[in-house]
Every structure is written in structure tokens, then in C-alpha cells.
Design brief:
eight-stranded mixed sheet; alpha/beta; 2 domains; about 400 residues; GMP Synthetase, Chain A, domain 3
Length: about 400
């Protein structure tokens, strides 16, 4: 994904810091707004992993720091739950004016409660997903319960949350108690996904049951199994982002991939960040991942580039055979194409290597045809396999690769 650092003002004129994460090709099919947990920030590792899974699925994701947290300006002591909702509205307004209004809201922990309350004020939203969220925002009082008497008596108190000092004012407590989650959740007219871990010791899973019960259909629940509250393990965060992205596509209209207007071919973008060899691919609006095996320093999260190359040949072969069989009305029920690629010396290849010297690329292709086909039909289909466009590109065409360097533009 590509990440853009931005700043925008909330409704009180306070500048908030944000990251806008986009798919590798910079062409999201929809935008989502992400709200982080209480006293956390947009830079939490789990948030980055989760949004990466979402951008891989085609979303543009705006994640920001609430007032007084992370890199946002303002004083945290002057905030409350309602001001968090206001920050979400301001983020949605910025996204609407600069790109497109958000159609999905995602919130982690108290951020999950916040997006449930903000959704009713954002008409563009079609779906809301919560991750480890409390049913009642007042649940957050558990984090500073020992100081609550002092807060009410003196109007404020210094508390330690996650090893960091924060000032909590009485107005914050009053605002929490004024919320009515049953009414707010029950009135929502959007699809709701509740994601929660049964071993979450910070926000118990009973909160998920209460949210689910209060919500109207369509509503869904997904267990995060052994994940902790902060989704500390990368695989848990990636799973969460992937599942909620797939779920939301049912409720958000997804445009079909369009051909590139200039050349009539699908646009392909490949992005590689600092995470070794794991590579994100967007091809014709579809997200893929490439990687290298662990034996050569990769993480084996996807097929290798050569695997993708021969996969393209296999797909082209199968599609070409299907088109031909359908045109002839031949009874081909299925086609399976098995491929292997290796580099070897031409002299060692039991194949027609011509007069080539040195190493060659050998692709072994085995075609399995399922159906009541005659031997004549099978042999004809074998001939047709060599006519697939990718086969011809690899064996007949003089491929020209024109490479340029894109100019570097200053980040906004």
C-alpha cells in the first residue's frame, strides 16, 4: 500500500494528524474510516497491518489520531467521547471533500463504540465493523476506576493508562454516562459486523453479544479466536482486516474492473515496501500477493514471480480451450492445467531447444481434459493450447519492455 501523511482540522479548529492508505495502484473502489482504541494512535502496529489487508482488498483507508493523541494537536484532557465522534465527523468531511465520502467505518476497542455512534450522522456509510469494542462507552472507566472518586471530587485527576500519564476530567465521565448504546445501535440502518476474541481480557466478549443483540439485521459476528485485545500478532491483524473487507463487499457496491482508457489493456501496479520480498499487486482491480520462499529470505505469503508467470500461461491455456470447446459444442466439462518451471542448460534439456546455448527456461505443461471427448477432439484441443495468446507471447513474440523512472513529487 502507499501511505500519505495528511492533516485536517476538526470542528473546533484543532489540527489532526492522519494517514491515508491507498491500494498499490492508488485506485480504491471505496473509502473507509478507521478509529483507534482509547489513548492509542494511528501508528499502532496492529492498525498498520489491519489497514494493509484492507488496501490489499481495494479500500482506501483514512486513519487518524484523535485530539490530543499521537501527532494530533490539542489537549487530551479537554476531550470526551462526544468529541471523538466529532473528530470522526470531521475526518469524514475531509475525506468527502478531498476524495470520496466513506462507505465503511471500522473501529477498534473504544473506537468501535465511537464508529457505532458516528454512523448515524454519516449518510454515506453502508457498513460498520467493530473489533474488540465495548457495548457501552462507559466500559472505559475500568481503566481508571481507582481514580474515579478523586476525579468526581476534584473535577480531574492524573491517571496512568498503558504506562502513560493522562488527565481525566469529570466532564469526561459525565459524557460517558450520558450515552445510550441500546438506542444508538438499535436505530442504525447499516450492516454491522462484530469481531471479538473470546480470550480478550480487556473488553470481555459479552460486549460483542450485547452489540449483536442490540443491532438490527443485517448483522454478523466473527470470532477472533486466540487474538489478544490489541491484535499484537501480525497474522491476527491481517486476518481481521481481510475478513471485514470481504464481508463489507456484500453491502458496498463494487465497480467492475475497467480497461485502461489509453491502451485498452488492464492496468497492473506492483508495490514492494521494506518488508523483505512480500509484494502487493493490483491487476485490473484485483488484489494479489507475490513473495519468495523462506529459503531465500521471503515469507512465503504468496506465489513467486515465476509461479505467477506460469500461472498466467495456465489460465490463458484453460480459457482458450474453454472458448474453443464451447464454440464447437464439444462436451468438455473441466480442464486442468498443471505447470512446472525450471532453468536448465540447453544441452541437458530433453526438448527442442534449437541452436540455443547456455541456460534456457523450461515450462512443462500437462493438460487434463474432463468430459466425453473423442480422441480426435482431445488431440485438437492439445494443438489449440499452443495458440493461447500468452503461449504465443512467450514463444513467438519479440517482447519489448520500455522502462522509465517516475518523477518524485513532494508529498502533500
Amino acid at each position: 500500500m502507499s501511505t500519505h501523511r495528511i492533516r485536517f482540522e476538526n470542528d473546533r479548529g484543532i489540527e489532526l494528524a492522519a494517514h491515508l492508505d491507498l491500494p498499490a495502484d492508488g485506485r480504491p473502489y471505496a473509502y473507509a474510516l478507521f478509529a483507534h482504541c482509547f489513548t492509542c494512535s494511528k501508528n499502532l502496529k496492529a492498525v498498520g497491518h489491519l489497514t494493509r489487508a484492507m488496501t490489499r482488498a481495494g479500500y482506501g483507508v483514512l486513519r487518524f489520531d484523535f485530539t490530543g493523541l499521537g501527532q494530533s494537536r490539542g489537549d487530551f484532557a479537554d476531550t470526551d467521547f462526544s468529541s471523538n465522534i466529532g473528530d470522526l465527523e470531521s475526518a469524514a468531511a475531509w475525506l468527502s471533500s478531498e476524495y470520496e465520502a466513506p462507505r465503511l467505518l471500522v473501529g477498534h476497542s473504544l473506537g468501535g463504540a465511537a464508529v457505532l455512534h458516528a454512523a448515524r450522522r454519516l449518510p454515506s456509510v453502508r457498513a460498520v465493523a467493530t473489533v474488540g469494542a465495548p457495548y457501552d462507552p462507559a466500559h472505559v472507566r475500568n481503566l481508571f476506576a481507582e481514580s474515579e472518586d478523586e476525579i468526581r471530587a476534584s473535577g480531574h485527576a492524573k491517571v496512568s493508562i498503558g504506562g502513560r500519564p493522562f488527565t481525566i476530567r469529570k466532564e469526561f465521565l459525565d459524557d460517558l454516562e450520558a450515552q445510550d448504546p441500546a438506542r444508538v445501535i438499535g436505530d442504525l440502518d447499516v450492516a454491522i459486523l462484530v469481531m471479538h476474541s473470546p480470550v480478550d481480557t480487556t473488553v470481555g466478549i459479552d460486549n460483542a453479544a450485547l452489540i449483536y443483540k442490540a443491532a438490527k439485521h443485517p448483522k454478523s459476528f466473527v470470532s477472533l479466536d486466540s487474538a489478544d485485545h490489541l491484535l499484537s500478532r501480525e497474522e491476527d491483524a491481517l486476518y481481521t482486516g481481510g475478513v471485514l473487507s470481504a464481508w463489507s463487499r456484500r453491502y458496498i457496491e463494487v465497480p467492475t474492473a475497467e480497461e485502461d482508457a489509453d491502451h485498452g489493456h488492464r492496468h497492473v501496479t506492483v508495490t514492494l515496501d521494506a518488508s523483505r520480498y512480500r509484494t502487493e499487486i493490483v491487476a485490473g482491480g484485483h488484489a494479489l500477493v507475490a513473495d519468495e520462499p523462506e529459503s531465500v529470505g521471503g515469507t512465503n505469503r504468496g506465489p513467486s514471480p515465476y509461479d505467477l508467470l506460469v500461472a498466467g500461461l495456465g489460465a490463458c491455456t484453460a480459457i482458450t480451450l474453454r472458448m474453443y470447446a464451447d464454440r464447437k459444442n464439444w462436451p468438455m466439462d473441466e480442464v486442468h492445467v498443471h505447470l512446472m518451471h525450471e532453468k536448465m542448460h540447453a544441452k541437458d534439456c530433453d526438448c527442442d531447444a534449437g541452436d540455443r546455448m547456455g541456460k534456457i527456461d523450461l515450462v512443462e505443461r500437462e493438460i487434463e481434459l474432463i468430459g466425453d471427448l473423442t480422441d480426435e477432439q482431445r488431440n485438437r484441443l492439445l494443438e489449440i493450447a499452443d495458440r493461447c495468446p500468452v503461449h504465443r507471447t512467450l514463444t513467438e513474440s519479440q517482447v519489448v519492455i520500455k522502462t522509465t523512472l517516475k518523477p518524485v513529487h513532494a508529498e502533500a
